Amino acid sequence: MNEELDLTKIREKITQLDQDLLTLFAQRRSLTLNVAKSKAHQIRPVRDQQREQELLIRLIKQGKSLGLDAHYVTSIFQTIIEDSVLNQQAYLQTLANPSIEMPTVSVAFLGDKGSYSYLASHRYFSRRAEKIIEFGCQSFAEIMTQVESGHVDYGMLPIENTSSGSINEVYDLLQHTNLSIVGEITQPIEHCLLTAVNTRLDKIKTIYAHGQPFTQCSNFLDKQSNIRIEYCESTADAMAQAYELQSDEVAVIGSEEGGKLYQLHALEKSIANQSENHSRFILVARKAVDVAEQIPAKTAIILATGQKPGALVECLVVLKDKGINMCKLESRPIQGRPWEEMFYIDVEANVKSGALQEAIAEITPQTNFIKILGCYPIEHISPTSIPSSALKD
């Protein structure tokens, strides 16, 4: 009995400490927003990676003196730094684009609640809006139409995955839209085998999923025998099917987080071919945004060079000579024009920068068509590097 009382007191102390930590995290976040406000009137980058590195090294040393593992301290504070950077960027973007500051936004995405597009939408706007009006769609084309028509403010579209590569249908749709890319987010894709009832893997006879998860989990699926694959329009549709059937012979591929919205539980976790599986999403809107100069930016360009030998290479050389890093190159056929291709290029530069303006001016005469699809903040925050010696005990 005494042991139970002691355990209760220990848990009460842990609960109080957790609450104290949350209060301190909130106070720290508030202070970092004050840092952003001070940078708003100065053209200083949001990130100071040398200072971040010095901060982490100091914290690691202090942590060691308190008996804390260096990797534990690093993991916690890298997450805190990422949150700080993203919040500062969101604040500066609001200053640069006052019209985008809205308490409520409407977003179209593939599927319904629980889909990866749904999760990406909520994660993206968690820093930017108090309320999200959700608009689930059955196709990428429908998402574009809903935004183009003004029925919703934004559309969330998956553009590429680290396992299955580029999503060609989205690239093809970008050829024929006047929408602008205004944001991006990289969403961790943690595929699980989900079921509505308690069961065993050897009892599963049917698996529901969207086509992309099937591709990304092919190694796991190849090891299963006598299982029928049922394709669905979205991961959310697949989850809804499993919930409705309530069968011990049915499973669905999706995220554990999304599955909870349908009262599904994970029978098998981490079933993707690659352990590091991420999807990159782009956010589209009817109006382009300005990117604050303090924020690292990407610019998406679409161009066609025709069937001129070496024309694409000449365009890329211009970017190289201007010191502009190209982080994505994708080619897609032009409908109705056999053997001709449209090229999609992402560069790490603000479209307002002198270097990129000069590059576009030089590239344009070498193309049959060129268009800026959008300039937007780089959302991926790379972890602050730390010397390996600092992590050694």
TrEMBL record:
<keyword id="KW-0028">Amino-acid biosynthesis</keyword>
<dbReference type="Pfam" id="PF00800">
    <property type="entry name" value="PDT"/>
</dbReference>
<feature type="domain" description="Prephenate dehydratase">
    <location>
        <begin position="106"/>
        <end position="286"/>
    </location>
</feature>
<keyword id="KW-0511">Multifunctional enzyme</keyword>
<dbReference type="InterPro" id="IPR036263">
    <property type="entry name" value="Chorismate_II_sf"/>
</dbReference>
<keyword id="KW-0413">Isomerase</keyword>
<dbReference type="InterPro" id="IPR001086">
    <property type="entry name" value="Preph_deHydtase"/>
</dbReference>
<dbReference type="InterPro" id="IPR036979">
    <property type="entry name" value="CM_dom_sf"/>
</dbReference>
<comment type="pathway">
    <text>Amino-acid biosynthesis; L-phenylalanine biosynthesis; phenylpyruvate from prephenate: step 1/1.</text>
</comment>
<comment type="function">
    <text>Catalyzes the Claisen rearrangement of chorismate to prephenate and the decarboxylation/dehydration of prephenate to phenylpyruvate.</text>
</comment>
<keyword id="KW-0584">Phenylalanine biosynthesis</keyword>
<keyword id="KW-0456">Lyase</keyword>
<keyword id="KW-0963">Cytoplasm</keyword>
<feature type="domain" description="Chorismate mutase">
    <location>
        <begin position="1"/>
        <end position="92"/>
    </location>
</feature>
<dbReference type="InterPro" id="IPR002912">
    <property type="entry name" value="ACT_dom"/>
</dbReference>
<comment type="pathway">
    <text>Metabolic intermediate biosynthesis; prephenate biosynthesis; prephenate from chorismate: step 1/1.</text>
</comment>
<dbReference type="InterPro" id="IPR010952">
    <property type="entry name" value="CM_P_1"/>
</dbReference>
<protein>
    <recommendedName>
        <fullName>Bifunctional chorismate mutase/prephenate dehydratase</fullName>
        <ecNumber>4.2.1.51</ecNumber>
        <ecNumber>5.4.99.5</ecNumber>
    </recommendedName>
</protein>
<keyword id="KW-0057">Aromatic amino acid biosynthesis</keyword>
<dbReference type="InterPro" id="IPR002701">
    <property type="entry name" value="CM_II_prokaryot"/>
</dbReference>
<dbReference type="Pfam" id="PF01817">
    <property type="entry name" value="CM_2"/>
</dbReference>
<dbReference type="InterPro" id="IPR008242">
    <property type="entry name" value="Chor_mutase/pphenate_deHydtase"/>
</dbReference>
<feature type="domain" description="ACT">
    <location>
        <begin position="300"/>
        <end position="377"/>
    </location>
</feature>
<dbReference type="InterPro" id="IPR045865">
    <property type="entry name" value="ACT-like_dom_sf"/>
</dbReference>
